[in-house]
Here is the input.
Amino acid sequence: MTTATELPAPDPSSTLTVPGPAPTTDAEAAPITMLNPDFPFSYDHYLAHPDGLGSVPPALYGTEVAVVGAGLSGLVTAYELMKLGLRPVVYEADQIGGRLRTASFPSAPGVVADLGGMRFPVSGKAFYHYVDLLGLDTQDFPNPLAPVTSSTVIELAGQKHYAETSDELPPFFREVADAWKAAVNDGAKFQEMQQAIRSRDTARIKELWNELLPLMDEQTFYGFIAGSESFKEAGFAHREAFGQVGFGTGGWDTDFPNSILEILRVVYTDADDQHRLISGGAQRLPEALWEHSPSDMVHWPEGTSLASLHSGAPRGAVGKIHRDANGDLVVAERWGREASYPAVVTTCQSWLLSTRIHTEEALFPAELWTAIERSHYMQSSKTFVMVDRPFWKDIDPDTGREVLSMTLTDRLNRATYLLDEGPDKPAVILLSYTWNDDALKWLALDADERVELMLHSLEQIYPGVDIASHIVGQPITVSWEADPNFMGAFKANLPGHYRYQQRLFTHFKQDKLPESQRGIFLAGDDVSFTAGWAEGAVTTGLNAVWGVVNHLGGTSAPGNPGPGELLDEIGPISLD
Ligand SMILES: Cc1cc2nc3c(=O)[nH]c(=O)nc-3n(C[C@H](O)[C@H](O)[C@H](O)COP(=O)(O)OP(=O)(O)OC[C@H]3O[C@@H](n4cnc5c(N)ncnc54)[C@H](O)[C@@H]3O)c2cc1C
Here is the structure.
């Protein structure tokens, strides 16, 4: 998380960056990766290892394994299981892609809107392993004050600040950035942690994190800010502005009630920084995984893909999961078809295991059910319009400035992003991207009502700019909490939730569970320590692959230990 307000060293994409000292050695110059401090396992190295992720006994080739959900996590899981010679059977209630969902504007199908994940930090190395493997193009995402963003407007309490670079903002914003930098350095050893992450020094990462965990688990993000010396000294206006514009991706005050641990994981790993979008839309990634035929598969003939194994379509929505008298796991679809499996991976949001899927209670320990039920989801809403061209780059002759800019505001819209593919093509305005209370304000309104209010807000910031006259076609809007297959946007733990997250994350290693609770694995965004970032969907899918292989009697490649082999050594500690 970063603010462009400072950026002494040019920071590509953020508003409030926390720069460290200039690197002096190779290790210091190494890139930050999403090496999560709870489990600093190098998934990128694991994936790149020439010996692969392991093997199952040849007698098991073709064994069916159920994968519930065709989002990114389910498809990574299915893809890797297929490569190992198993036969994944994917179930999906709605669209391939899940929360990587891209909508097209009907009158110009090439013009797209990413309704869920849209900007992906370059530090997410496991995510980009698949982006690169599948040959997808990416571009810089136009975050506030990012180099690719030609201008940004910050409008708070009716005061408007226009800036093409962070240096052009008033000194107040630098003070806010400095206060945040001091808060995370003094309170959470930010620089030391980033240095340890750069050098992949897992012992040091664990040492730093394990000391912070018990101190921070019951602390809110806001409590951390308000309790820090730097923000106490700076005063309320600085805390308020920090919440409203504070991070590279926009204001994060809707995260203030969440556990500070959630925020630290993001900032330590630069997940808020250097974002790229997938050209043509984020959904291209799961779709490509579904269609792709890997070259290094065992058992399956050349040309096999997940699509070909499923004759083109995944199975339907799952309505029930239980264990039969033989000990197999039975997956029943909502419309009746049943099949039994030696192993099942569920990747849907975990609440759905009790609300939409009748999951036999005995399949999970009671403490795991508690963790599932305590899940706290962020709400999120986005509203897009297509416009005839990127008119915002027109220069106002009176001011010499662009007529409309990427905008952060304390008005209803909160954040407006401008996306274009060149001067003479239709372009897209993400009029408003909001979370939590800000998202709930939109929930009851239809798309047109939303757009009207959003345009009204923008008119106050840009008087005389007729945005409406550029709109073509119908707006596209989403509220993830209104979709019964999601019930929320993404998980965000509240204070005191570390224990729940630890249970969910470590469940893939089942050696201590009774036989009756083995064979069903949880994966996906909810299970990850960095929910809301697609990297966690990928890495928890890889954990589940390890769990399934191990459960079926397979092993990791000898020179490439998997997440389950290292979990006890460098995994999340117990606070009890
Ligand atoms: C608004 C929003 C913004 C985001 N922004 C970013 C971002 O900018 N960068 C980033 O990295 N990440 C972002 N994310 C997070 C990212 O989208 C997720 O981490 C990722 O897409 C989750 O993948 P998944 O496979 O774990 O879950 P999902 O994508 O939710 O996949 C689960 C699948 O299960 C299916 N399902 C549900 N019930 C059933 C059932 N009964 N039977 C069968 N299938 C079922 C669902 O339809 C879904 O397809 C964002 C998410 C949202 C919602």
In short: The CA atoms of residues 147 and 207 lie 36 Å apart.
